[in-house]
Specification:
Layout: H1 2-15, H2 20-29, H3 41-53, H4 61-72, H5 77-87, H6 99-108, H7 113-130, H8 132-142, H9 148-156, H10 167-177, H11 183-197, H12 201-210, H13 215-221
Length: about 220
Amino acid sequence: MQEDFFYDNLHKELRTRITPLRASKMEAYMRNKFPFLGIMSQERREILNELKMQGLNSLNPTQKRSLVVKLWEEEHREYQLVALEWLMKWNPKEFIASDIELFEWLITTKSWWDTVDGIAPNVVGKFARVFPEQMKETLNRWESHDSFWIRRACLIFQLRHRKETDLVLLQYFISRFKPEREFFIQKAIGWSLREVSKWNPIWVAEVVKSEQLTGLAKREASKYI
């Protein structure tokens, strides 16, 4: 299959750049959640750009999604990070309604902030603009999802929407999730409000007060107000 050509080339390039000392530092920074090869973001971008020059973006929709899944299933974290970097550059016009199932799988597989925080605002956020009704149905299911990473995505998928942010929806999720003590949920509440405060600080101040936010969520939300 054609996607195997790009997988093999990526695999070869990554393996020739292995840096064990750097890998151990990267693993420690990520709390030893995943093994690393020790390849930094700039090098990964160079590899991805080379693959694009070889015709990566000419893969058909099925091949593209198959390659993303194949890379996500790899052991070392660099494979997921290259796949994410590529996915975030896809034209939203390429999305299809069923992609939300793939995005959910990506969020809940090998989950950590380095992938989830890329997928939610930069992929799911774009999807939501193209398929608003599909996204509405998805959020109805996601708000009760077992994975707090999915619930975090509910809070941060609108980060890039700026003045098009659905503030009613955002406050709904803040109110829904504020009782949770999970660090990544509290951080996401504050983060989502901090972004809105850049253009609507009065609304954010009102939400912080009305929702009686405290601790991390309040500190993060109030940085610019």
